[in-house]
TrEMBL record:
It holds the Pfam family Isochorismatase. Residues 7-145 form the Isochorismatase-like domain. GO terms for molecular function: hydrolase activity. It comes from Crenobacter caeni. CDD domains: nicotinamidase_related. PANTHER family: ISOCHORISMATASE (PTHR43540:SF14), PEROXYUREIDOACRYLATE/UREIDOACRYLATE AMIDOHYDROLASE-RELATED (PTHR43540). This is Cysteine hydrolase. Keywords: Hydrolase.
Amino acid sequence: MPNPSRAALLVIDVQQGLIDGPPLVTRAASLISTINAAISLARKRAMPVIFVQHDGAAGSPLAPGSDTWQLHGALAREDSDTVISKTAADAFCRTSLKATLESLGVSDLWIAGYASDFCVDSTVRSAAMQGYAVTVIADAHAGKDRPHIGGDTLIGHCNWVWANLDTPGAPVRVLPLAELAA
């Protein structure tokens, strides 16, 4: 009998300087509360919660140890949660993420975080191409206004793109947290 799939929640780059700006992230207040609700749901379902934290170069706003580099203080973190450091947009690139997921027996990922159009997008695509069953929490990721697109439109665009990607095995699911909780 095959092993049942095991899901984990991946929270990407929800760091002080990225969320609190400047400029302030789109839907900042609801982003943190929705991610915390996803964390609560994951814990109720005995899912591992993994935080990904971007390490910038020395002297940059995301230099390790700086106030802006810290994971956001409003996140519902626990000491037992795993934190994976990364230096590229893709959370799998030169990190321990894949080995961590393998050691936990994870085959399904719920993905939330910042920035929809950069690190979340890169990680969603990478995870799907590696064969993970990916569910993006549609209302638990965000970006900022960009020169050519507003933050709210950006979020909708990314949700549409991910739901329409051609991926091996299974399509990327894009669902609001309320549907995952049902």
